[in-house]
Amino acid sequence: MVAVVATALFVLVVGFIGWRLAEGGTVLHLLGGYVLRGGFGVVLTPRVLMPVAVAVAVVLVGPGLASRLRFGVLVAGSAVVAAVWAVALALSSGWHRLPEPLSVVYEYPNDVPRVGSIGTFLSTFTQFVPADSADPWTTHVAGHPPGALLAFVLLDRLGLSGLGWDAALCIVGGVLAVPAVLVTVRAVAGEGHARVVAPFLVLAPIALWVATSADALFAGVASWGVAGLATAAVSSGRRRDAKALAGGLLLGLALFLSFGLTALGLVAVVVVLVHRRALGWGGVVRVLAVGAVGVLLVVGLFLLGGYWWLDGFHAAGDRVRSGPSYANRPLAFFLFSNLAAGALAVGPAAIAGLASLRRHRLALLPLTALVGILASDSTGLVRGETERIWLPFYVWVLCATAFLPQRQRRMWLALGAALAIVIEVTVRTEW
Questions:
Q1: Does 381 fall in a domain?
Q2: Distances (CA, A) of 334 to 231, 341, 342, 345
Q3: Cα 261 to Cα 212: distance, rounded to the nearest angstrom
Q4: Is 428 helix (H, G, I), strand (E, B) or coil?
Q5: How many helices (H) and strands (E) does the chain have?
Q6: Would you say 149 and 115 are in contact if contact means Cβ atoms under 8 Å apart?
Q7: Which residues contact 324 (CB under 8 A, 6 or more apart)?
Q8: DSSP H helical segments within 328-378, as ranges?
Q9: Which residues pair with 428 in a beta bridge?
Q10: I want to staple 251 with a disulfide (CB 3.0 to 4.6 A). Which of 89, 191, 225, 348 is the partner?
């Protein structure tokens, strides 16, 4: 409880400093917010009863069901309920809220019509990243590798065009991170811990940005990449190699969705290293090597298409640093504001869980995710909007909830859900 109260005070202090900066003329580019991106404005309608009903149901029966259901049913059911929770939260502010976040000119769907030949798209992608190029990509496209836009292009080419399908892609991708984390937790620390974590993953405040931001899709892909390596480490023979290769392919794909996902590499390594005694160093090296082959295959395919990741990385960094929103955002403030937004996104249960960590291999998952978050924060390139940008890391931080005392779990579950509903009702988030 002390850690949660201290974190709440930290968020309030950061918000107050943000307010003072804004009052003094500093443009934070947070749409009127001081920690989260989005100004204050209460929208309270009968639709809020939808997320309230979901939250009450999960708090009352979620932990019990999680302990009794067959694991396969739990994994699938958790994804479904997570989707219901995310959609219910979004719809409580209006039926338009699911596709609306993707409709702005800064988002990926805006540039889908520009893409003709995939080969030409990849080989010329980097030259349109600079803001002063002849026809620059829109903000989010330019700040990411081409795989992010390519996902929406391929969806369109499949005949699933329109913002509704784009929103569905993001939401499905985001909620699929839930079963990936559960499978990983079982591989790392046993089924019992996964069953404890399940309700917290389902009902976390991160759902506010699962419906709808493309970072949710990134989280799903990256999480299943980590799950592939984790399950490979507890398999044998050809199944081990197949799972490691699949995990590597997904992690390689994740690198072409977001440059920031490189910081997730430590989590991917740790889920294998925890099995060093069972695997031996030879087994550890084999799993990681096969996974690396998968990553390199993806890198090679994009290179054959004409896109080199490092060139794109440097070009995207230059684009970010050249923008007015970067120059105007004070680094000293956002180094702390980023973390405050992250605390709101993971919610009080994760904070309490981190304070309850003990010497156990499962503790490495939230700790290494925190290392990735701090590494991202320290670059200075990320200034605001971390409630969505760090979604691929938050799902692993939530594993800390496995360490909450049993008698307190329902309380923390309820508090997290309440926080999510309060944010949805009072903050006009962009996503």
A1: no
A2: 37, 10, 12, 16
A3: 19
A4: strand
A5: 21, 2
A6: yes
A7: none
A8: 331-355, 364-378
A9: 39
A10: 225
Contact residues for 233 (Cβ-Cβ < 8 A; gap 6+): 187, 240, 271, 272, 274, 275, 279, 283, 284, 287
Per-residue pLDDT at 291: 98
**What's the CA angle centered on 249, arms 243 and 250, to 5 degrees?**
90
Tell me the two tokens of residue 2: 């002390």
Return the structure tokens found at 89.
């939260």
Is residue 411 in a domain? yes
Please report, as a single letter, which amino acid is at residue 145. P
Question: Residue 306 in contact with residue 124, Cβ under 8 Å?
Answer: yes
For residue range 260-314, list pLDDT tens digits in order.
999 999 999 999 999 999 999 999 999 999 999 999 999 999 999 999 999 999 9
Residue 208 in contact with residue 394, Cβ under 8 Å?
A: no
Task: Give the distance from CA 155 to its chain's centroid.
Answer: 21
Percent of the chain scoring above 90 in pLDDT: 93
Residue of 403, 291, 315 lying closest to 351 (CA atoms): 403
Query: 205 lies in a domain?
Result: yes
Percent of the chain residues past pLDDT 70, beyond the cut: 100
Q: Is the pLDDT of residue 96 over 90?
A: no
- Picking from 301, 313, 303, the residue whose alpha carbon sits closest to that of residue 142 is 313
Residue recorded with tokens 């990256």: 222
- Whether residue 222 contacts residue 265, with contact meaning beta carbons closer than 8 Å, is answered with no
User: Alpha carbon 403 to chain centroid distance?
Assistant: 22
pLDDT at site 323: 75
The torsion angles phi and psi of 6, rounded to 5 degrees, stand at: -60, -40
Alpha helices in 30-124 (DSSP H): 49-68, 71-91, 118-124
Strands (E), 193-274: none
3-state SS class at 40:
strand
> Contact at 8 Å (CB) between 78 and 198?
yes
Query: What does DSSP assign to residue 134?
Result: S
Number of domains observed in the structure of the chain: 1
Question: Distance between CA atoms of 325 and 327, rounded to whole angstroms?
Answer: 6
Q: Which residues of 174-193 are buried (b: 16+ CB within 10 A; e: fewer)?
A: bbbbbbbbbbbbbbbbeeeb
Domain interval for residue 203: 38-329+403-429
Question: pTM higher than 0.90, yes or no?
Answer: yes
Contact 353, 204 (CB under 8 A): no
Mean pLDDT of the chain, nearest integer: 96
374 falls within a domain: no
